[in-house]
From TrEMBL:
Positions that bind NAD(+): G11, A12, A13, G14, Q15, I16, C17, N105, Q112, T129, G130, N131
Keywords: NAD, Oxidoreductase, Tricarboxylic acid cycle
Gene3D superfamilies with a match to the protein in the record: Lactate dehydrogenase/glycoside hydrolase, family 4, C-terminal, NAD(P)-binding Rossmann-like Domain
Organism: Auraticoccus monumenti
Segments forming domain Lactate/malate dehydrogenase C-terminal: 156-322
Catalytic activity entry: (S)-malate + NAD(+) = oxaloacetate + NADH + H(+)
Cited Pfam families: Ldh_1_C (PF02866), Ldh_1_N (PF00056)
Protein's GO biological process: malate metabolic process; tricarboxylic acid cycle
Domain Lactate/malate dehydrogenase N-terminal: start-end pairs: 5-149
Active-site residues, as the UniProt record annotates them: H187 (proton acceptor)
Name of the protein this chain belongs to: Malate dehydrogenase
Chloroplast keyword on record: no
Annotated substrate binding sites: R92, R98, N131, R162
Molecular functions (GO terms): L-malate dehydrogenase (NAD+) activity
Length: 328
């Protein structure tokens, strides 16, 4: 049988991981023939709760789960890992300014970037879910100079999936009919879900729906503010859907995207579509052989250009803020 793939997950006692770990261990990430070893990182006060989660993993008797190790030292937990899913982050609490939030997360992602740099396997792929995801990914990437930059991604797949379902419901079709969705920019309320390249049953979604008032007044704000709507309804932030998106992003990054399709991934910009090099921004991507490529040659109209530029401007602001804090 195959040697186990070592998968590191941080924030392992938190709510996203309460779904995520079970999905990984059951084979949703790497398929039904690939054993996995979980390496779970938490802060010291959460280790006891994490032990309880490990008891539940044990109690599932997952055939593919070869081993589980837990700890509060990134250097040990990340040793030899092939995949790293960085979910744990410092949430914004009452009275916290944006700078405080970036600084608190900076401390986490500088340390975890260095630990990955020094201890992860040579083929490591790193996906950041913890918010502010794009900028946390930038911090980790810049603190891991020996790992190729393209191995650092941030999660905008949840936004992508949210947008797919909004379009499917509007068009009255199954979600599988909706393809070529793109989230551009930052995982934040400035993100731009682009309908102009989306297809519904092979037809252009914007033309088929033909309702710009719905696009601007309903579709965009619903997708952009979905996180807040979930909190309002559920009393806590999206967890199972965030875990699902984290699995799907990493699964596609490892196993590839279907021929003729693309997905949204936040990746280090190479300057495509006028997004400045170096920031980690969401693009339409295909994956083959474990390497992603940004889809090239899409026409961007004036409406989309303005929306992409606004979200990119926010990413540049965040980059400048963490630069002046000395985090990158
Ligand atoms: P929870 O607060 O339930 O769990 C976070 C866990 O991370 C806690 O158990 C905490 O102890 C741990 N942690 C904190 N610092 C750590 C460190 N230095 N090393 C290891 N673990 C550490 O949050 P949860 O709901 O699971 O969300 C986790 C993160 O995902 C948050 O930052 C959240 O904002 C972000 N999200 C990102 C989404 C995305 O689409 N990119 C969507 C969902 C979610 O909002």
């Amino acid at each position: 049988s195959n040697a186990p793939v070592k998968v590191a997950v941080t924030g392992a006692a938190g709510q996203i991981c309460y779904s995520l770990l079970f999905r990984i261990a059951s084979g949703s990430l790497l398929g039904p023939d690939q054993p996995v070893e979980l390496r779970l990182l938490e802060i010291t006060p959460a280790l006891k709760a994490l032990e309880g989660v490990v008891m539940e993993l044990d109690d599932c008797a997952f055939p593919l789960l070869s081993d589980v190790q837990i700890g509060d030292d990134a250097n040990t937990v990340f040793d030899g890992v092939n995949l790293a899913m960085l979910v744990g982050a410092r949430p914004r609490t009452k009275g916290m300014e944006r700078g405080d939030l970036l600084e608190a997360n900076g401390a986490i992602f500088t340390a975890q970037g260095k630990a990955l740099n020094d201890h992860a396997a040579d083929d490591v792929k790193v996906l950041i879910t913890g918010n502010p995801a794009n900028t946390n990914a930038l911090i980790a990437m810049r603190n891991a100079p020996d790992i190729p930059q393209h191995r650092f991604n941030a999660l905008t797949r949840l936004d992508h999936n949210r947008a797919l379902t909004q379009v499917a419901q509007k068009a009255g079709v199954p979600v599988t009919d909706v393809t070529h969705m793109t989230i551009w920019g930052n995982h934040s309320a400035t993100q731009y879900p682009d309908l102009f390249h989306t297809q519904v049953g092979g037809r252009n979604a914007a033309e088929l729906i033909d309702d710009q008032a719905w696009v601007e007044g309903d579709f965009l704000p619903t997708v952009q503010k979905r996180g807040a709507a979930i909190i309002e309804a559920r009393g806590s932030s999206s967890a199972a859907s965030a875990a699902n998106a984290t699995v799907e992003h990493m699964r596609d990054w490892v196993q590839g995207t279907p021929e003729g399709q693309w997905v949204s991934m936040s990746v280090p910009s190479d300057g495509s579509y006028g997004v400045p090099e170096g920031i980690i921004s969401s693009f339409p991507c295909t994956v083959s052989g474990g390497e992603y490529s940004i889809v090239q040659g899409l026409e961007i109209d004036e409406f989309s250009r303005g929306k992409i530029d606004a979200s990119v401007a926010e990413l540049i602001e965040e980059r400048d803020a963490v630069t002046s804090l000395g985090l990158i």
